[in-house]
Structures are given as C-alpha cells and as structure tokens.
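testing teh design pipeline on a random one, pls ignore if ur not involved
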C-alpha cells in the first residue's frame, strides 16, 4: 500500500541554502524562501488566543455556524451539466488538486507581464468579452502573487513552525491526512528530527505531482539535534512514505505521535464532522497530538475564494473562526491544548479526552 521514498543520499540535488543563510528571505519566481525566525513583533507568527477558557460552556448559539463558500468553479459547473449529476467528492478533489497545483508552477513575474500584455491587446481590440476574461486573469495572478509569493500565506513557514513548537515528542511518527504535497509534514520533521512521515491522499496526482514536483531546493528551517541550534533541511532529508487510499481504508492502529490535517475539516458538512474527527483519533497513540488547520473566516479569505473560484472552488468548503473550529473539535471528544490563528488559517492542537 505504501511507498517508501528515497532519502537524500539517493539523490544528487541542488541544496543552495545552509545555516549561513539563517535570517534571510528571498523571492523566487514561484514562491518565497524564508529562513527567518518569527518574533512577537511580526505578522508572520501563530497568534495564540485565549477567547475560550472553558470549552464545555461554549455553545453554537454563541459562535454561529461557519460561512459556506457557495461560488463554484466553471469546470465543476460544466461537468455537472454534462453528467446531469452533482460532482462526487473524489472527482471534485481531483479537479481541485490539478487546478490548484498549476499555480504553484507559475513563473509569477513572467505571468504578470504576459497577462498585462494580453489585457492591453484586448483593450486595443475593444472586445468587451475578451477584456472581461483577461481582466479576470490579471486580477487572479496579482492576487496569487500577493497571497502565496509575497505574503507566503499558503505555506506560511514562520506561522506554522510557531504553532508546531513545544510538542512533547521525540522522533515522532507523523500521519498526514489529505496530505497533498505534504508541506506541513516536512516542516514538522525538520523541527523534530528523526521523524517518520506517512502522507495519505486518495488522489494519485498528489503523490506523483504535488509531492513529486515539490522543489528539492526549498529549505525548511528546523533543529539540529547534535548542536541544539538550527539547521536547514530539504525534502530528501526526510523519511517519507506516501499512501494512496481513502482514509477510511487505512490499516493503521494507534501508532502515531502526531496526526495532522491541513484544510480537511471544512470540506465536510456537519453530518460528517464527527467521522472526520474520528479519523484523527483512531490512529493516535496515547498522549499523542492532533494538529488541524482550517481557512479563516475573514474578508481577505472571502475575497480570495471569490476571485479564485475557478482554481479553488470544486469541493464543499467552509470558512470558520477559531471558536467554531474548536467547538467541532471539543464536541467530538478532544481537549484543546492550544488554539489560535495565522495569516490565512485557524489552528488547533488537541488531545483525545
């Protein structure tokens, strides 16, 4: 079922960053390199909140229900018209993965230049339909440039390590549910050296392309167990197995120190939330940690999912605040160790009661 992927020693790859680059950041054509530490003065951090002191007293009437994103992609609408049926969950996930990943591959400055030229060409031709379409392309590439490349709000290499720090684990086994490219699993492994990562997704594209094409030159800032200082790691430094299967079919027992999901819970309506939470519980060792994130319900996120609908909106999706997310977690049998938010995501660390 699982495939153990080669270690760094099996490759000859380009690793351009080392400890001498600590504290630096650099814009690449498709993403940002960031080897800076967060600080309390930075926006790039995990903000721990204490809005709820006793989760047992919090009720849905206090927090309301999440915001459902109802705008769907053109490709989904066309598929449903052609098949005269609602697109099933797995198909929508496959469509989303491909549409989303294509944006990670873009040379953004070149794409901005290309779209600007196309816009002026459409203006000169005075074709209203073409102008509208190209203007949408221009808006999307500029938004993607800001969110992913400038602000680094998708990977968030300072906010997520700030959330992950301080876990009582040693050489942990990490299970990543709905892993896609596995970014957060690799970041955890950099912070807790000697980790074993099992990435799980039921779309083969995630293993072969989203993880397979993740840049080998991308540096992860982690801990050096030999010195107690910091160390730069790369994708091929990590022990990774990738499992292609439905989460409900996984054969594992309670054998993982950390079970993590990033943007999973919000894809399921309320009648499936309990099952999703049980997926996290059933594979966790006693004393282990569940780590979860969901997109924040803020005006920036609503705007992003509206403008990027053709890229993002193939599946059922909600935007939450951290109290709503926490209530789902607490009501389904978990004590919340830490809750807060980053740029684009709510985040919770929890343990089963």
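output:
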């Amino acid at each position: 079922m699982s495939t153990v992927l080669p270690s760094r020693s099996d490759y000859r790859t380009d690793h351009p960053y080392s400890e001498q680059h600590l504290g630096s950041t650099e814009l690449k054509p498709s993403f940002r390199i960031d080897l800076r530490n967060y600080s309390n003065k930075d926006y790039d951090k995990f903000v721990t909140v204490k809005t709820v002191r006793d989760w047992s007293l919090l009720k849905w009437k206090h927090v309301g229900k999440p915001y459902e994103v109802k705008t769907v992609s053109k490709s989904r609408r066309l598929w449903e018209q052609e098949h005269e049926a609602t697109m099933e969950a797995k198909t929508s996930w496959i469509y989303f993965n491909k549409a989303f990943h294509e944006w990670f591959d873009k040379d953004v400055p070149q794409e901005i230049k290309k779209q600007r030229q196309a816009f002026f060409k459409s203006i000169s031709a005075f074709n209203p339909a073409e102008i509208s379409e190209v203007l949408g392309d221009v808006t999307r590439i500029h938004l993607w440039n800001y969110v992913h490349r400038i602000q680094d709000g998708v990977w968030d290499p300072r906010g997520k390590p700030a959330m992950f720090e301080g876990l009582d684990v040693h050489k942990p086994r990490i299970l990543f549910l709905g892993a896609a490219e596995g970014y957060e699993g690799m970041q955890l492994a950099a912070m807790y050296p000697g980790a074993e990562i099992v990435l799980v997704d039921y779309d083969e594209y995630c293993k072969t392309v989203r993880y397979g094409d993740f840049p080998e030159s991308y540096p992860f800032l982690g801990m050096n167990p030999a010195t107690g200082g910091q160390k730069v790691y790369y994708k091929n430094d990590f022990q990774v197995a990738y499992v292609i299967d439905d989460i409900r079919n996984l054969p594992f027992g309670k054998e993982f120190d950390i079970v993590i999901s990033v943007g999973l819970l919000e894809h399921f309506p309320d009648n499936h939330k309990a099952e999703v939470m049980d997926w996290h519980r059933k594979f966790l060792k006693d004393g282990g940690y569940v780590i979860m994130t969901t997109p924040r319900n803020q005006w920036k996120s609503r705007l992003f999912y509206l403008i990027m609908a053709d890229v993002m909106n193939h599946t059922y999706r909600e935007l939450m605040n951290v109290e709503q997310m926490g209530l789902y977690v607490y009501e389904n049998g978990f004590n919340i160790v830490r809750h807060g938010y980053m740029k684009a995501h709510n985040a919770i660390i929890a343990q089963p009661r």
